[in-house]
Amino acid sequence: MPSAASLAESRPLQADEQRALARLDGARPAMQAQVLAWAAQNSGSRNLAGLAAMADMLAAAFAPLGASISRLAAAPVSAINAAGAEVPLAHGDNLHIVMRPEAPLRVLLTGHMDTVFAADHAFQACRWQDADTLNGPGTADMKGGIAVMLAALTTFEASPFAGQLGWEVVLNSDEEVSSPGSSALLAEAARRCHLGLTYEPALPDGTLAGARKGSGNFSAVIHGRAAHAGREPEKGRNALLAAADLALRLKALTTGDLSVNPAKIDGGGPNNIVPDEAVLRWNMRPATLAAQASAEADIAALIAAVAAAHEVHIHCHGSFARPPKPLDANQARLFHLVRSCGAALGLPISWRDTGGVCDGNNLAATGLAVVDTLGPRGGAIHSADEFLCVDSLEERARLSALLLMRIAQHGWVR
Questions:
Q1: Which domains does the chain have, with CATH numbers?
Q2: What is the pTM of this model?
């Protein structure tokens, strides 16, 4: 098996590779049409009907590959509502696509069919900003990425190297809300595979995401005691005040390795009643596993301290759904292989750290080497200004197709 150093060496394109990649010549119109059709279907994370329609469209698009396609229900999860009650939270089905499961070398490719734009959001249609720039919901994040993945797999399957590599695809329906219903599916697939490729968009200049912070979303349900605010306020236990105190103490945990964002407080009522219920919601982003462990301990300690100080009961709901993804040696060797493939195509590849999170965090937490921004170039994601650099669809499909061919030829040791 070649060493990590030899895998990262830049090699010129071989004749078989050139012939396989020639299938992508002129691929832009078909890929562009796919993105336009998929973007026209709203698939916001909470739009279950829209996600079902999107899953149908994607299953049909992947069917010609001849792989096994399964539609899997999301795992059951819950959330805290504004009243402080734990309630079931529904998510859409996930697609699991498998080719050559018996192969000794296997690659996991992941993408998400959901977007951040709800069915009633004003941003629903695409428009051209110029000949190469398409503004539209999910065009970059990540319906364009799924188009790149599909084109790369189609090219790879037509190459002479296809029989040497098995692959799995997970297209989940809840990535934009931290993948609570698909995290187990992702982890199981990651443990079966040797390396991972995820199709979040690259930056407009083509830069990839390197190390990523982790992310955790939490809710604290605070139970106090109601009382008349004028006649006997001393008999009350102010849940809203306790929530505010907890928010300030959590924010004070911020360091270079941990950011904390208290985001919302639900609760309160008439001015003449001491509020007896409140819900505080916050997000934490640790840069390292040590910072995550410290934050978990600090949350427990602060909740105990605030509960005692205000004589209230506090229940915490939530977790770090996205562990930090450091750019360690295991991750770096895959990045260098991607860069060597880019060099063979005349495509400069670089990367930098980011505070954003994605399913790449979850995959890396299993020990899998994963590059998670192999999608097309784009930007302004999660806003109505989101755009896709359409000229990068074919470009990035070539990069992934060559990457798959070289893994098939030269192997990979997990």
A1: 4-212+325-410 (3.40.630.10), 215-322 (3.30.70.360)
A2: 0.94
